[in-house]
Amino acid sequence: xxxxxxxxxxxxxxxxxxxKALAIAFADQGARLILSSRKAEALISVxxxxxxxxxxxxxTLDLEDHDGLQTIFEQNEMMLKDVDILINNGGISQxxxxxxxxxxxxxxxxxxxxxxxxxxxxxxxxxxxQRGEGHFVAMSSVAGKFGVPYRSGYSASKMALHGFFDAxxxxxxxxxxxxxxxxxxxVKTDISKNAITGDGKTYKKMDEAQxxxxxxxxxxxxxxxxxxxxxxxxxxxxxxxxKLAIFVSKLFPNxxxxxxxxxxxx
Length: 266
Prior knowledge:
single chain; alpha/beta; seven-stranded parallel beta sheet; about 15% strand; globular
């Protein structure tokens, strides 16, 4: 029997990309699903793609509207109180230098990528504590381990996830509540097309590195394996290169600063 069979999994950012691939992968394992994003029609399409999964529910929300998240949670408590796994996947990327980025863009990146995940996790935590079990998953990025050019706000928001969920993991260490941080490298999705530029407009371009990235459906299956093993942190997408970059950034920071300044990240 699959480890995930009949587990209730709540996925944000489930309308496309990694979130959609995760929904299908969990459905294949017999999980019960709650699919969330702002796009109801896209979620309905993902629900159809989940095939014969016995239980797929749709809950639209906007991660940027933190007060609205509180209201949605209270209105749907019966649906949400028995969630087993929360996948904080919803987010947006960035393509702009610091000098050309409006402050409103930084605020949006933090509101969506970090504070939205923190709010949902904070609201779900009492139910996990009451049951003595549960699993929080934060979808970070390799860019959450070190700053990357043209992604200053994106990197900062992902680094914030690490600080928050590392602290949460320490706080629940004596319980059976698990916390995992997933750090993909380049994955072939539309994340670069949907990224925002310095003035908040959509980038609308596929990065070359993204185009050559890891297949999203392969990634989803690998993430499920990591979650079943309750890994605290896992890295994917050009795994050797990803692990090498993190290794060099920690042990040879000066050398790494020179490397990342020249890196082709667009």
